Amino acid sequence: SAxxxxxxxxxxxxxLVAHVHDADGAFWLTGATFDRDSADTSTHEADxxxxxxxxxxxxxxxxxxLSDAFGRGEVQAWAGVRCASHDRRPLVGPCDADxxxxxxxxxxxxxRGLSFAVLCAELLAARWHAEPLPLPVALAAAxxxxxxxxxxxxxxxHAASQ
Length: 162
Fold this sequence. Notes:
It is a single chain. The protein has a five-stranded antiparallel β-sheet. Strands 5-6 form a two-stranded antiparallel sheet. The chain contains four helices and seven strands. It has two domains: about 10-80, no CATH class; about 90-145, no CATH class. By secondary structure, the chain is α+β, with helices and mostly antiparallel strands.
């Protein structure tokens, strides 16, 4: 039988998410580079090659399977700006502590969005509904929007997909 891309997402020094479906069919995602203190959203061949090398370390079999797509230039690269806080921890909670009925944030996940998104969403929902926290109080406080050093900053990201 022909080798298959992994059924579950992989995360380590990079990531691979295969079997993603949209209106145009199935595709895969791998990446990503992370350039601090840059708002450049143009794509760069060096970033695509870095993502290819990262994939080879993360899952050599998948890298071998996708090698032809990279070699023929069939991958689509994109670049964006990631939001990160100055202390590199997510921001979860009300924008204004004096107006808890106002907007709330679940932001600044930086390069760890795939890892932190579910936990931060659970924390936000628990705080919003005054339910038990999904993590210790000290950790919840470390992610609070009102903590010192939590000012949001922008960080760019670059990724490749097919």
